[in-house]
Write a sequence for this structure.
């Protein structure tokens, strides 16, 4: 009986200590439980976000070429589902003024596949490796960024070429959906060189914004990707990889020549995406924290 009472007193003593620890206040007058709640709800600071993205950029710069290559091809194939999903929605929706507000959600599908699967997308790399390059502008880092960019870009283009040829040569989807894919692709190409370039700047900026926001998304990654890529779609911004699926489809179908694609689409959109993601977003992101990370 005495042993039982002793055990019960020991348990009560531990419970009192636990309650006392919870009531213990820090220098701000908060209990430990309240302090932990505050810590969970605090957003990441800008220098913390910078450090996360910078470290990711360093990791990408150090990855083997073969890993970058196959991941880039996978991303090129995955991004093709943006066009398929958008075309499927367009086909099944009535021809009404509000239809673009709905069918453009299909554009988000490929980006969700690529980003959540951590595949290599060229426009994501317009910010991540630029931060370590801006911090240490050395010959080695310049060469690493150029290797990363060139390998991933070519791999992405190979993947999008495969999607375009596959859908043009084989019944990869319903005939009416394929016709909607052609319609969407022709609308994309029906822009001037300068318009392609200017709208690519906006797309590059928004994709870089996704990369910057994701570290603090806290389980809302899906929503972040959908919102920003949906804006790209409804604003008719041009994206070098997603748009290449549409351009290659038109080339494979015989609508345009490869020269027309390279001059009228690839060149202006590539320059615009790099300008928006690197020259605007990445360098501005570095500028706002450079004094805090010294």
């Amino acid at each position: 009986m005495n042993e039982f009472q002793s055990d019960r007193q020991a348990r009560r003593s531990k419970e009192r200590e636990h309650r006392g620890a919870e009531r213990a206040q820090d220098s701000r007058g908060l209990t430990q439980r309240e302090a932990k709640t505050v810590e969970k709800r605090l957003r990441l600071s800008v220098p913390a976000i910078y450090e996360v993205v910078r470290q990711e950029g360093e990791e990408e710069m150090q990855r083997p070429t073969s890993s970058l290559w196959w991941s880039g091809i996978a991303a090129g194939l995955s991004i093709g589902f943006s066009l398929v999903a958008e075309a499927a929605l367009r086909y099944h929706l009535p021809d009404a003024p509000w239809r673009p507000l709905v069918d453009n959600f299909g554009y988000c599908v490929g980006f969700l596949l690529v980003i959540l699967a951590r595949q290599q997308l060229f426009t994501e790399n317009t910010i991540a490796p630029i931060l370590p390059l801006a911090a240490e502008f050395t010959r080695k880092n310049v060469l690493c960024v150029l290797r990363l960019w060139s390998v991933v870009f070519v791999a992405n283009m190979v993947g999008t070429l495969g999607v375009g040829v596959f859908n043009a040569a084989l019944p990869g989807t319903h005939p009416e959906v394929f016709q909607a894919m052609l319609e969407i692709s022709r609308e994309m190409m029906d822009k001037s060189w300068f318009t392609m370039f200017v709208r690519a700047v906006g797309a590059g900026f928004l994709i870089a914004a996704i990369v910057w926001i994701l570290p603090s998304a806290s389980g809302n990654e899906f929503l972040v990707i959908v919102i920003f890529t949906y804006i790209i779609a409804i604003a008719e911004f041009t994206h070098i990889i997603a748009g290449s699926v549409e351009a290659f489809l038109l080339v494979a179908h015989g609508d345009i020549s490869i020269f027309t694609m390279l001059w009228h689409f690839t060149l202006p959109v590539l320059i615009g995406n790099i300008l928006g993601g690197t020259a605007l977003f990445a360098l501005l992101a570095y500028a706002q924290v450079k004094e805090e990370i010294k």
The radius of gyration is 25 Å. The CA atoms of residues 95 and 103 lie 11 Å apart. The first helix runs from residue 2 to 23.
